[in-house]
Structure formats: C-alpha cells, structure tokens
Amino acid sequence: MFDRRSFLLGSAAVVALAPACRAKPQRPAGVATPGRTVVVAGASAPIEIADDEWGVPHIRAATIPDAFFGQGYVVARDRLFQIDLSHRRDLGRMAEAFGADFARHDAAARLFHYRGDAAAELARVPADVLACARAYCAGINARIAEVTADPSLLPAEYAILNVRPLTWDVRDFVLARGGAEGNADDEVRRAQLAALGLLELDAIVAPLRPAHRMTVPDGLDVTAVSEADLGVLRLGALPFGPQTPTREPGEPDTPLERANAGSNAWTIAPQRSATGRAILANDPHLGIGGFAPRHVAHLTAPGLDVIGGGAPGLPGIMQGHTDRFAFGRTNFHIDQSDLFVLELHPDDPERYRHGGGWKRFDRVDVAIPVKDAAPAAATLRHAVQGPVVSHDPARRRATVLATIGMQPGGSGAFAMIAINLAGDWASLKQAFVLHPSPTNFHYADVAGNTGWQVIGFQPTRKRGDGLLPVPGDGRYDWAGYTDFRRLPSEYNPAKGWFASANQNNLPADWPADRVPAYSFRDPYRYDRIAAVLSAQPRHTLADSVALQHDTLSLPAQAFVALLPAGASPAADMLRGWNARLDGASAAAALFEIVWRDLSRRMLGVLIPPRAQDLVTEIAPGVLVAEARKRPALVAASLAAGWDRAGALLGPDPAAWRWDALHQVRIAHPLSRIPAIAAAFPPIDGKGSGGDGYTVMARWLGNGPGWRTGGGASYLQVIDVGAWDQSLMLNLPGQSADPKSPHYRDQYDPWIAGQMHPMLYTRAAVDAHVRTVTTLSPGTRA
User: Fold this and answer.
1) Across 466-618, where does the E strand assignment appear?
2) Quick one: the chain helix, strand, coil %, rounded to 5?
3) pTM greater than the 0.85 cutoff
4) What distance in Å separates the CA atoms of residue 75 and residue 82, rounded to the nearest whole number?
5) Separation in Å, CA 608 to CA 193, 482, 539, 546, 603
C-alpha cells in the first residue's frame, strides 16, 4: 500500500533488496529545514510533526488523543479541499456554497443521514476511541483556523470557487451514512431480465459465486421493475462546471469501477519467510484518476506507535503496522443492501402496505440552504426498511433501499481507531465489533503469529437471498444483523501463508444458509498469487514486491491456448507471447484490443436484441468458454484487432506498446472548470502494464479509451518486527498542492514499481527528516 519506512543508513537487509524494488533517496539524508511553531486550540501538549523526504508526517505526541489530533491536522494540511468537499457533500451542504443545481444532491445526502438516537450511537463507542475521534476533528479544525486566519495558506480551490471550509464535529461521523447503491442496480437488472424470461443471461455478466439458483421473490411483479426504481441513487456526479467531472472525490464513478474495486493481500508465516519473520503485503484497489484515496501518517505517543495509509477524512490507519503487529485488508463480500418495492395506498400516497395493514411514511420536509437564492424545499421519506429512494404516486409505487450503514452501529468511522489501539489478536476482536464493512483482515505479529478474520455486519433476512428486489410488505424485512463472530477466520494456518484477492474464500463446508453474498470476484488474481506463494518455500520482501507488480494474465493464457489453427499476423504474434501484460509489450496491446472486440462480438451472438441494453458486459471465464466453440468469431476479432492496433499504434507492430494506450493520468476531479484545470496541472505522461485481472491490478476505465481507471494506488510490504525494512508507495504523492514537492513525486516510482522505505524507528526517521512543525497548545489570536 502506502509508503513504508526502511532503516537505510547501512541496513544490510535493505541493501540486499533488488534495486528495482526501491526508489533511491531524492535528497541528502539528515538535512532538515528550520522548524516552525503553530499555535493551535484543542491539543493538550506540544505535538511535533517531522516530515520525511517522501512527505510522510511522523507525529510525536504526549498523549494518544493528541496523536490523532496531529493526524487530523496533517491530513487537512495536505488534502484540505479533498476532505472538505467530501464532508460538505456527505452533510448535504453543497447548494449553500455552489448554488441551486446542487440542491437535489443535498436532498439525497440528507436522505441517508442517520435517523436514530445519535447520543446512543456515540455511547456505544469506547471512551478512548471516541476521545481520539474528537481529537482528529479538532486537528482538522485547527488547520482550518490557521488557514482562515491567513487566507494565503488556503488551497487554490477556495478562491476559485469562492467558498470556505466547513468545521468538523465528531457527531457528523454518526450522522452521515452515505447513499451508495450497493448492488441495487444488479437487483434491478436481474428483475428486468426475469421479466423477459431471460434471467439465466445474468450469469454472462456476473456468474454467482458460490453457485446458486436464482428465483423471483414471491409477490414481486418483475414486469414493473425499471431503472426508475433506483430513484435518487442515479443522480450522478456533482454538477460542477459546464460538464460534470469524470469522478467524484474518493468514490467509484461507474459500475465498471465498482466491479473492479477490491485488493490483494497475503501473509507469510515465519517458517515460509526468508527473514524468519512474518511478511504482510497489501495493495488496496481503488479509482485512479482523481483525488488520491490514501494519505500516509505515523502516529506516536506513549502506548501508540502506528504507521500506514489512512482514508483522508477518517481517523486512523487502515493498512499498516503498530509496534506489535502488521495489518492489511481486502474487500470481502457481504450483501449489505436490499431494494424493497412498496405498494402505495390508492387514496393516500403517504401510506404504504406493510404487515397486513397500511403504515404512514416518516416524512420530513426540509429547507436546503441555497447560495444567492431562497432555500430549496425537499421531502424526505423513510419506511420501516429505510430511506425511500423513489416515490411514484401515479404508479402507486415506491422503493426503499435498506442498508447496513443505516442500522444502529452502522457507522464505520470509529473502527480504524479501535484497531490501531489494539495490542494483539485477542484485543482486535473487540475492535472488530465496531467494523461494519465487509473485509478480509490480515494480521501478523512480532511473536510470529498470523491470522485472517472476516469482519463486517451481515443482515438477517426473514426471506430471500438479496439478488432481486423484494416486496416491501413485511415478509422480506430484515430481522437485525450479525457481526464478525459468525464469519470465517483462521489463526496460524499450517501451510504457512494465506491470501485474499476478493475471490470466494468461504470454507468448502460453509453452510448454505449462512452464505453472505454471491458476488465474489473472478479468481484470477488469487490463483496467480497462490501459484507463486506455493512455489516459494522461502519468500522474501523482494518476492512480495515482484508479486505486487506481476503482470501474468490467466485469461490471456487461456485465450492464447484456444487460438484457431492457420496463419494470421495477430495469431502469430499472440502464439509467441508469454501472456504478460507488460507495458512495453506489443502482444499485450494487441491482446487487449482483440479481447475488447471479441467481447462485443460475443455479446451480439449470445444476447437477443431485446436484452442487449441489460447485458453489456461478459465475464472473462464466460468469454473464453464461448470462444472455444466459435473459432470463426475469434478469427474475425483477430483480424479486426490487428487492423485496429495499427490504426491506434502505427504501422510497425514492433513499435506497439501496451503502455502507449494504457496511460495513467491523474487530474483534479473538478478540472472541467478552466480555472481549476489551470491551477492544478494534471499528473500524466506515462503508461502502465497490467489490467483488471493481473495481480498488478490496473483496470481500464469506462468508455472507448484505454486509460487506467483504477488499481493499487497504495502498496505496502511489511517486514514484521524489522519495521524499517518495510516498503511502500502512494500514488501520486502525499500532497494535493501543486506547489508541494510531494504533489507527484511518487508517480514515476509507481509507474516503475520502485517502492521506497517506510521509515519507522526514531533513528531512521530522524535521518530523513526534511521539515519539523510544532503544534503548540493555545488560543489563536
């Protein structure tokens, strides 16, 4: 994942790493600029922030809450507009800053605000965790106070957009739950296919894993289901500028990006490690192209010493290590949302059928503040299952999205703090109670123990499997949820390693009535990881770095194996190819072009016209299986792909390169506003290998282009116990300020796969400090 520190200064183990595994220091070691002091409100004692040569802040505090205060301060220092825009959006306060076009987005955000007892939600958070969350907010506010007092310190967006940052309150973590649609769009697609009598075609898009037979829920009229049932879930991107931005901050922008969002992680026990210590590697996969999704920080105080990547705007470290254990995470799969279809009363659309009678919506009429205009009126409705996302009296129909996030305890904002405060595997189990999102949690400690625990909340459905919309009359309601204690785990596995890459990792004997989801991803990344790790009896740090950048494509191998007999320039090039999607590979570029063409042709063959707007993707395993039956179709795609590659890359096949197409471009999410584009130059100029099915996951974006749309922007390889030998990367850098040396300093190393040290011990950090800031308690003038 992110940056990792390394001892440097003659550390023999670090010197032994292959040069390609690490970036060279960019400045002489041990040279720091004179320190500065900032007077802040909210800290209990002075806090020192020592920034190293990669822009990682090492926060040294006298108390644990003060360390989290420091984290809040530095994330606001480096990413203020990023976290502020996300915060404003989640609170439903966009229109007051940007005008009436944003009012409907504000209404949708407020629809997903928690409606239960906020005080009770805070009361369920342990006191020490809550104190750290409050301190984190205070740290953000301290930086806001600093830049407000001196507007020259404000990021450029504020002057361009004529706004000011919002202050933060810990209660906002309880209030804003988010309105992500989850798999509601999949449910609607399946219902529409069922209405056509073609439900089996859904397996072309997304084969169910584990295998399962779908049925239409009793009482659901599939012919009435449409995209309109998604209601406010389909509002789209925020309406900045003459066109909408390509991506909202920190959020998957499209179904393709949501489908690819995942991660890789593996944990190697000491008996399989060349170091004799555990190794933990992790690289979370998120969107690439807008705001960087991770910010690295190191928090130290008596009783706390944790470093790694955090999500900007959320307290704590998500992937990293303490002084006792390393931890990583990948997406597990728990179906945590359902779309309910309600029948409205024929004479009163504010009532809906439920439990054998009629219930009235919990209705709230709100006035949304609007810049330079009267407040915008909006009506928010909630049914027993959750927020009403569509209300259509003319059709006597409404839809409700039930999500785990809207349940008591459904805010995950406090979970990372609790994990960071834990001391061992046993105490982590208490922290997991606060973690609702579905996650494979990886663990390795200094005593040589390794562990895997699935965490997250699983809804308890009275009926149904969550795969299609269900009637909202009460028969399919949730009866609560269960937590991680009913999910799989393993401690010190005998084989000496384990890995997760979003594949179906339920134990073979897992009860069918406890399956948490049927949406596990294609197993290609995991299968490649497992093959490599199984063949390495003594795994090294360099092996982990190489595996994180592995470009072998198992779908490409399968495709090459089925190429039809007979000479053609495309077939000849691919037959001699090693199936690695390296950036410099001509065959990799050709394969991707042929694969896209074949996907389009195969969908045209397999999908009848009446369903072609519903089935627009084909799973790779399905494509390969169907291609074996249709050599003529493969031959046609080979010929078309050859011609297309020539048109895209030039007439000389020897000069073709995959990275010439698969460019990596990072731009401000609001760069369609000319002044933003001028102030924030894009970070681009190079391309990448890999795709969505290689371990080095760098999937294609949506649309006709070939640009990288997402992948592992943060990477970490941790040497457990010899912490300074750990390594990391964080694309494109720590800062969102173009004037900072850390705006794009990790772009080139990320492209090249050159990880840098994750400095941790006091001596290693001090040798590479570049700036020192002291936060001094007081009251700003």
Assistant:
1) 470-471, 478-482, 489-491, 497-500
2) 35, 25, 40
3) yes
4) 10
5) 11, 41, 50, 44, 9
Structure tokens at 319: 């992937």
Q: Are 497 and 272 in contact (CB under 8 A)?
A: yes
Report how far residue 607's alpha carbon sits from residue 596's, in angstroms, rounded to the nearest whole number: 16
Strand, helix or coil for residue 8: coil
DSSP, collapsed to helix, strand or coil, labels residue 497 as: strand
706-762: pLDDT as tens digits: 999 999 999 999 999 999 999 999 999 999 999 999 999 999 999 999 999 999 999
The tally of CA atoms less than 13 A away on the side-chain side of residue 106 is 23
Domain ranges of the chain: 554-581+586-656
* Packing angle of the helix pair 64-91, 103-111 (nearest 10 deg): 120
| Closest alpha carbon to 680 in 77, 236, 79, 93 | 79
| Cα dist from 276 to 8, 153, 320, 338, whole Å | 20, 48, 20, 47
pLDDT tens by residue, 80-104: 999 999 999 999 999 999 999 999 9
* CA 723 from centroid of its chain's CA atoms: 26
Residues 6+ apart with CB under 8 A from 104: 232, 235, 378
Q: Which of 221, 179, 212 is nearest to 469 (CA)?
A: 221
Is the distance from CB of 727 to CB of 6 less than 8 angstroms?
A: yes
List C-alpha distances in Å: 396 to 382, 384, 393.
Answer: 16, 18, 5
What are the structure tokens assigned to 392, written together? 């259509």
